[in-house]
Design brief:
Elements (H helix, E strand, L loop, with lengths): L24 H17 L5 H10 L3 H11 L3 H38 L6 E2 H22 L10 H13 L5 H14 L3 H30 L4 E2 L7 H11 L1 H5 L7 H7 L9 H37 L7 H10 L2 H5 L25 E6 L17 E5 L2 H14 L1 E9 L6 H11 L2 E9 L5 H13 L7 E2 L2 H9 L4
Parallel strand pairs: 1-2, 3-4, 3-5, 5-6, 6-7
Helix pairs in contact: 1-3, 1-7, 2-3, 4-5, 4-7, 4-8, 5-8, 5-12, 6-8, 8-12
């Protein structure tokens, strides 16, 4: 070629990000965020990311993850993933402070200032009533969904977080987390963690306030009724005291319950009623919430480990043919056309016998180009788009070449398009060779390339696996 610099070189691109053999939850989360961003902002420029994904291999999900990791937008989404905790931290702190204030206020309200006896029924209702009601709603929501989960606090939190996270790409990351929970059918456990954490904060604060007030003030305890018999309160107290008594906590007996129904409190019974109030809050409030919080956390972590991308979603289904060409499953070409273009038809331009030409065919980004140990004058650039393919064919048709060496990314499986292009390029060179650049660990793919190149009648001695052999052949004088 008289002017090899006219071949356009591919613009510099970012280095390939090659994920681990098995995708992690964070990588799948990133892929979901990429899917949502493309649904919102349109498809990304992913030519380089697709090549990286095909070179990395693996099943369709692994290639989708690799593609997502190599997109230009991935860095911003990864940053948003890491920053989401800092973004929601002020909201979480404010919510926990409100929960703590509610617990302290509830304990102070039910006990009062000590100037009047504490109504036992009202005290227990004030400390445990709403907790029991919301707990029942949460449990019912496991089978009869209330909104998106059985957690009213979780739904409120989700609503507030969505309103405060409208800036992109953070909104995509947040929405992707919710989509993962929905697809994994784990929204119940995901939002349940928040609900139980808030209630645990409320009840623990109430317990601390209860301890402080009982330790610093003198309270009497009574129950009052107009129509219920005294036996009702005896049975109720015995039922509530069943678990505390089994743990050795002093609780009121039947006589103490009847005494509390009088007009004045009995001093000797104060410790028993205080013990019942504190133990009921601990055993029927704090302990169940703590256990359910641990259960929700375990279930959510389990859902994260089991989560896999839903490959039936339209966005992923559209990527299948681009990430999993039919050729890769069989090694060489899938069935179809009966005959590839003929190799070296011999209609190059005369007088180009001494021209040397080195081209790169769809190399991945981690293979440096041009190679440092080849003469720069031989470099005819990269072919990795339809435009550069037409330009390369036009230049070769015009100038021809004595020797044409085509560098191939051997980590990719050979496909009909690549083999047909090699055959087409060879028509404009006196002699053509193929250099398997970037040899993979999988020797099977090397064999597939040899078989594919043989199918277009490229001589085996013109297929090189080492850099030195390819360079020596390119620079050797014509016979």
């Amino acid at each position: 070629m008289s002017n090899p610099e006219t071949f356009p070189a591919a613009p510099p691109r970012a280095a390939i990000v090659a994920p681990a053999a098995t995708a992690t939850f964070e990588q799948r989360w990133l892929a979901e965020a990429v899917r949502l961003s493309e649904d919102s902002a349109g498809p990304a420029d992913d030519a380089s990311a697709l090549r990286a994904a095909r070179a990395a291999g693996g099943d369709l999900e692994q290639r989708i993850v690799t593609r997502a990791s190599n997109l230009s937008s991935a860095d911003r989404l990864r940053t948003a993933q890491g920053a989401r905790r800092q973004h929601t931290a002020p909201l979480m702190v404010a919510t926990l402070l409100l929960a703590a204030g509610a617990g302290s206020g509830a304990a102070g309200t039910v006990l009062g200032d000590g100037s009047r006896p504490v109504n036992i029924v009202w005290a227990l209702s004030g400390l445990l009533g709403l907790h029991v009601l919301t707990l029942l709603l949460w449990l019912i929501g496991r089978w009869v969904p209330i909104g998106q989960s059985g957690s009213l606090a979780g739904q409120l939190w989700l609503w507030i977080r969505q309103r405060l996270s409208k800036a992109q790409p953070l909104a995509w990351v947040m929405q992707a987390q919710f989509e993962i929970a929905r697809q994994a059918r784990a929204t119940y456990w995901w939002l349940g963690r928040l609900s139980h954490a808030l209630w645990l904060t409320t009840l623990c604060t109430a317990l601390l306030t209860l301890f402080f007030l009982l330790a610093t003030r003198r309270y009497g305890f009574v129950w009052e009724t107009t129509i219920l018999p005294a036996d009702t309160f005896v049975r109720l107290t015995q039922a509530l005291a069943l678990l505390p008594a089994a743990l050795g906590i002093t609780v009121p007996d039947a006589t103490m319950v009847l005494n509390a129904g009088g007009s004045t409190a009995v001093d000797a019974d104060r410790h028993a009623w205080s013990g019942l109030l504190v133990s009921a809050l601990l055993l029927y409030g704090i302990v169940p919430r703590a256990l359910l919080l641990l259960l929700c956390h375990f279930k959510w972590r389990q859902a994260q480990r089991r989560f896999r991308l839903d490959l039936t979603l339209p966005a992923y289904a559209r990527l299948k043919n681009r990430l999993m060409p039919d050729t890769e499953s069989a090694g060489i070409c899938s069935a179809a056309p009966a005959k590839l273009p003929e190799f070296h038809a011999g209609h190059r331009t005369p007088g180009a016998d001494h021209q040397r030409c080195l081209m790169a065919l769809e190399l991945a980004d981690d293979l440096p180009w041009p190679p440092t140990d080849f003469p720069p004058a031989h470099d005819a650039g990269r072919i990795d788009s339809r435009e550069t393919r037409h330009q390369a064919l036009d230049q070769l048709a015009q100038h021809g070449a004595g020797r044409l060496l085509i560098a191939i990314d051997a980590r990719l499986s050979p496909d009909r398009g690549a083999l047909a292009l090699i055959a087409e390029l060879s028509r404009y060179a006196d002699t053509t060779g193929a250099w398997l650049y970037g040899l993979p660990a999988d020797v099977g793919r090397v064999r597939h390339w040899h078989e594919g190149l043989a199918s277009i009648d490229l001589a085996a001695e013109h297929v090189f696996e080492s850099r030195a052999a390819a360079r020596d052949w390119l620079e050797a004088p014509n016979a």
